[in-house]
Amino acid sequence: MLTFATGTLTDDALSWWNAYAQPMGIEQVNQTTWTELKRLLTNKYCPRTEIIKMEDKLYNLSVKGNDLKPYVRRFQELTTLCPNMVPNNEKLLEAFIRGLPRSIEGNVTASKPQTLEEATNIAHRLMDQIIKRKPVQETNNHKRKIDDRRNTTNNNNYPNDRNNNSHSNNQINKNNYPNNRNNNNRNNYHHQQQNGRQEIFKANGNRGYNGPHPLCRKCTLHHTGPCTVRCQNCHKVGHQTRNCRS
């Protein structure tokens, strides 16, 4: 493991390792543990100021959007570079779950995963369920917005329609009122003429009239109200044809 890791070093890192290993000899260098190698590399290429920056990035790391893969990859990189922040498995799982979306954070915690791989699989499964439900929720929300707009439009138009109908009915009643009044006057006048003609007819058909209707001086007939007898010659009201002077 140590031989493979040091064999991948290049440029300045390779020069640094050769300068470190040559004085010690190959046998002693091969006895270096993996933990010791990481400590040497950290001290050389990761000063404390850079480690603090990476620790802040790890603490504030969270999922962006609905894609967990970039988050998991970056989390693994930072935990490797900042081992002091996740000294045990419990702290590692706590840091991983803290960066998950709130929609699945509680469910992952309730599942009580024992390893990072298990927590990652649970988070992926829950996120896939949310992504599948999202189009259905968007469709329902779109329909709800359309229904709300229709209801709002109908409610706004109802008072106007009612006012317009009332205004139209009032206008119609106003327009018809003079006509109705004129029609009533015509009907009354027609009835008066009919009554007068009936009384005149009775008076003509009964010589020696003794009824209650007075004698009209214009037409010399018995009737009530204004004289309605019309001359057939000059078409004037108030005298009979036989008494027409024209």
Largest sheet: none
Helix share, percent: 55-70%
Overall pLDDT metric: 77
Contiguous uncertain segments of 5+ residues: 193-199, 201-206
Structural class given helices, strands, pairing? mainly alpha
Protein name: Reverse transcriptase domain-containing protein
Pfam family, one: Retrotrans_gag
Keywords: Metal-binding, Nucleotidyltransferase, RNA-directed DNA polymerase, Transferase, Zinc, Zinc-finger
Biased composition (Low complexity): 152-195
List keywords for this structure.
zinc, 9 helices, RNA-directed DNA polymerase activity, metal-binding, Retrotrans_gag_dom, mainly alpha, nucleotidyltransferase, 246 residues
Give a written overview of the molecule:
This protein has 246 residues and is mainly α. Among the domains are: 2-134, no CATH class; 212-246, no CATH class. It has 9 helices and no strands. Helix 5 packs antiparallel against helix 6 (69-81) and helix 8 crosses helix 9.
Structure, briefly:
InterPro entries: Retrotrans_gag_dom (IPR005162), Znf_CCHC (IPR001878). By secondary structure, the protein is mostly helical.
